[in-house]
From TrEMBL:
InterPro entries registered for this protein in UniProt: Cyt_P450 (IPR001128), Cyt_P450_CS (IPR017972), Cyt_P450_E_grp-I (IPR002401), Cyt_P450_sf (IPR036396), Cytochrome_P450_Monooxygen (IPR050665), UspA (IPR006016)
Gene3D superfamilies linked: 3.40.50.12370, Cytochrome P450
Required cofactor(s): heme
Location within or outside the cell: Membrane
Entries under CDD domains matching the protein: USP-like (cd00293)
CC annotations in GO: membrane
Amino acids binding heme: 756
GO MF term set: heme binding; iron ion binding; monooxygenase activity; oxidoreductase activity, acting on paired donors, with incorporation or reduction of molecular oxygen
Keywords: Heme, Iron, Membrane, Metal-binding, Monooxygenase, Oxidoreductase, Transmembrane, Transmembrane helix
Official protein name in the record: Secologanin synthase
Gene Ontology BP terms: lipid metabolic process
Region Disordered: start-end pairs: 122-146
SUPFAM superfamilies, sorted: Adenine nucleotide alpha hydrolases-like, Cytochrome P450
Species, as recorded: Dendrobium catenatum
Lineage: Eukaryota, Viridiplantae, Streptophyta, Embryophyta, Tracheophyta
Length: 808
């Protein structure tokens, strides 16, 4: 049928039923029965009815419907086909029940007339045949247009005139039928290329009346029974249809159908009329929509997934946005399907390209999108990370409720794919029972007695750095690089029994992977495309992850070899030893897999190096730019330790470094080592007795927002003032944070049950390192230093931390 190779325009073509067209019999032959005696066979079996093939086009005023009709006229219709133009209108209201459909819906009449004109211009041999007016679900024609009935009457008058002219030869019913047929033949030839419209039901009614009237004129004394006239009329109608097919190769039928639902009404009408082909106009879909349909294919389960995706990407954003706005929570507009990440990415890129003056108001620099949204929408902001709604929390009392999470409503959410590669499913990312088991296991490596034993290793690592600095007196040093090496050495020695040189490849690869994580923090991908379309970062991160795994596995195998040789008792009592002992545990409840061992190692390699290096760097910046506090800290160190280095017996002495603690707390307030804390809402709940939050919503807590809140810390919130913590953290918070107490307005290591497990080691390491540096050197900020803090999971100096060393 048609030219299969032709390019289809923007509409949908689907098959409803299948029939084989059989040519109409020649003029003068007997009517074709419903099933021919010598019917053709299809596929070796089924009989084929000798009916005209019907092609239906659903029309309206759109350009897509016009394109569909043009395609049907040029590609689908063949000789003797019947083209059905169907227009669906809304059901009549009670007030308009007495009006005809054309009076109720004149626009539909105009649409059908315009489509009829297109048919006439494109296929001159086509002819209109009937007007059908239906309501959805009705069995047949309901009402005839008065204008069409009058038109039928005109044609019947012409037919009657032709009949009367030959009345002399019409003495019987058969003669009347033959004469009527001849009259119609003349009439059809006369208007062969006209656009004849007649209604079958109107013809049946008016034809009978005309035949009765004619019979009285021709044979007033004849025996004309009503039954004979009906039989004659039926025979005549069949023969007239045959003549119409002979002279008008394509027949057009126009239908106006009333129905509430467009799609079901069209399909139902097509089924009733037994159409062979249904052509529907369809708007051109976007590439995203086409990919969705290709992905779904004919799979019902996939179709359900597509509907679920549409719900999440269209309906849920509308519903949740309205729900939150009703509670006074607003935010940036949702954009399909990126959410608000496109706006955030632009602000982050612009921020990274700029340096700022030496100011500690870092929120506009490290999180410019959050800073902008809070200024515009308020302390609590509704954002969208792709399809997922996320509530940015800016109130201390809400932070306290979420992080304490006494009822288990705000657990850790799903780990993003790049974070999964960086930290795996270690204690920082695990959830539920696994997190509880891993937390209990790893906490043993950071008990107070274990920290005491780590001091010797920390001092040795600092001594190594200071020895190298002996040759750099008066010269510039990038302290961020130096502290990165120092903290790498400390975590390697204290947690894994190795060294920085042995684990250097791990730290290098972790730093590369962290850069990819930060780069893709605002990237959103369609879930089903990830499996088939990997970008450069996907491929590179997978390669780096595999390199990290191999390097950690070598360290694990080395520890096993040492145990087998008897060089150590068991697997050791450091973090790696505890993990390996749990891996070889006989009890299944306490046993962990090798994947768990590697994931925990990745977590502590990253956390033990990155967060502590960041904390030491920003504290050194503040000391170098505030010489008075640097001198006060030095005096305290000299008073407690003199010129000697701390030892493992100095645990109590280290805890007496009050001024150092104040300085470090203020440093972490201004430059928190953890920039983002993410949670999810596990069930519909009420937050802070005022906000209704739906299940599945993300929770984003940024310590920087709370740490630099003027309502909590005062107008000098952006100034370095360690005296805030002169009486401890709890006293600094008393009466300021709306939630009251510690852990609400100051939480550099998190709060609640998931606070940072390495907090104790980080504080001891930082105090020992700074104490030993201040004993020997005076720090001055280099003129070449450019203040540009950036987000890289933690906050780090984008261009390093250049400091001039002056030996004491």
């Amino acid at each position: 049928m048609g030219r299969a190779s032709s390019k289809l325009p923007s509409f949908c073509l689907s098959r409803v039923a299948t029939r084989v067209r059989v040519r109409s019999p020649p003029v003068g032959s007997n009517p074709v029965p419903a099933v021919a005696a010598d019917a053709e066979k299809v596929d070796g079996g089924s009989e084929v009815t000798a009916e005209r093939r019907r092609v239906m086009v659903a029309v309206d005023s759109s350009t897509e419907a016009k394109s569909a009709l043009l395609w049907a006229l040029s590609h689908a219709l063949q000789s003797n086909d019947c083209l059905v133009l169907l227009k669906v209108s809304k059901p009549a209201s009670k007030q308009g029940g007495d009006q005809s459909p054309w009076e109720r819906d004149p626009k539909s009449y105009e649409v059908l007339q315009s489509m009829k004109t297109i048919c006439q211009s494109k296929r001159p041999e086509s002819t209109g045949r009937s007007w059908g007016i239906r309501q959805s679900g009705s069995a047949g024609a309901r009402e005839e247009s008065e204008s069409e009935s009058r038109e039928v009457g005109v044609w019947l008058v012409k037919w009657n005139e032709g009949l009367v002219e030959g009345s002399d030869s019409c003495e019987t019913v058969d003669g009347l039928v033959e004469q009527s047929r001849s009259a119609w033949l003349v009439l059809l030839r006369e208007f062969r290329y006209g656009y004849l419209t007649f209604s079958r039901s109107a013809v049946r009614a008016l034809l009978l009346g005309k035949m009765v009237e004619t019979s009285r004129q021709l044979a007033p004394n004849g025996d004309w029974s009503l039954e004979a006239l009906w039989a004659a009329q039926a025979n005549l109608t069949q023969q007239i249809e045959g003549l119409a097919v002979e002279f008008f190769q394509v027949v057009v039928e126009l239908y106006l159908v009333e129905g509430k639902d467009l799609g079901p009404t069209i399909v139902e009408e097509a089924r009733k009329q037994g159409v062979s082909l249904l052509v529907l106009g369809q708007k051109k879909r976007s590439i995203t929509w086409r990919l969705l349909m290709i992905w779904a294919g004919g799979n019902r389960l996939a179709s359900v997934k597509v509907l679920g995706f549409l719900k999440k990407s269209w309906w849920d954003p509308i519903r949740i946005t309205k729900m939150m706005e009703a509670q006074g929570i607003r935010g940036p507009a949702y954009k399909f399907f990126h959410g608000s990440t496109a706006e955030a990415s632009k602000l982050l890129v612009d921020s990274m390209a700029k340096s700022v003056e030496l100011s500690h108001d870092i929120l506009p620099k490290v999180q410019p999108h959050i800073h902008s949204w809070i200024k515009q929408y308020g302390r609590n902001v509704l954002t969208w990370h792709g399809l997922r709604p996320t509530l940015v929390i800016g109130e201390a009392e809400l932070v306290k409720e979420i992080l304490n999470d006494k009822n288990g409503v705000y657990p850790k959410g799903e780990t993003p794919k790049f974070f999964k590669k960086l930290l795996g499913d270690g204690v920082a990312m695990a959830k539920g029972e696994k997190w509880a088991r891993q937390r209990k296991l790893t906490a043993q490596a950071f008990r107070a007695d274990c920290l005491k034993g780590m001091i010797t290793g920390i001092v040795a690592a600092v001594e190594s750095i200071l020895t190298k600095w002996d040759e750099l007196d008066g010269k510039e040093v990038d302290l961020f690089k130096e502290f990165s090496i120092l903290t790498s050495e400390v975590i390697s020695k204290s947690a894994f029994g190795s060294s920085y040189s042995e684990g250097k490849i791990i730290f290098t690869k972790i730093d590369q992977l962290a850069a990819i994580v930060a780069k893709n923090s605002q990237t959103v991908q369609l879930p089903f495309l990830r499996k088939f379309m990997q970008n450069r970062d996907d491929i590179e991160s997978s390669r780096i992850e595999e390199d990290i795994r191999e390097s950690i596995f070598k360290i694990v195998k080395k520890r096993e070899e040492r145990k087998e040789k008897g060089e150590i008792d068991g697997y050791g009592d450091d973090l790696l030893g505890l993990l390996m002992s749990a891996h070889h545990e006989i009890d299944k409840e306490g046993k962990i897999t090798m994947e768990d061992v590697i994931d925990e190692c990745k977590t502590f390699y990253f956390g033990g190096q990155e967060t502590t290096a960041s904390m030491l760097s920003w504290t050194s910046l503040l000391l170098a730019s505030n010489e008075d506090w640097q001198e006060r800290a030095r005096l305290e160190v000299m008073e407690i330790f003199g010129g000697r280095s701390p030892t493992s017996e100095d645990t109590a002495s280290i805890s007496k470094l009050k001024t150092m603690t104040m300085i470090m707390n203020e440093s972490m307030r201004l430059y928190p080592p953890v920039l983002n804390i993410m949670r999810t809402v596990s069930r519909n709940s009420i937050l802070g007795n005022k906000l209704v939050v739906p299940k599945g919503m993300g929770i984003h807590i940024s310590p920087t927002i709370i740490h630099q809140d003027r309502k909590i810390w005062g107008d000098d919130v952006h100034l370095f003032k360690p005296e805030r913590f002169a009486n401890g953290v709890a006293a600094a918070m008393a009466g300021k944070a709306a939630g009251g107490g510690s852990g609400t307005a100051f939480f550099p290591f998190g709060a609640g049950p998931r606070f940072c497990i390495g907090q104790g080691l980080a504080m001891v390491e930082a105090k020992v390192a700074l104490a030993m540096i201040l004993q020997r050197y005076k720090l001055r900020l280099s003129p070449s230093y450019i203040h540009s803090p950036i987000y890289r999971i933690t906050i780090r100096p984008q261009r390093g931390l250049q400091v001039l060393l002056q030996k004491l």
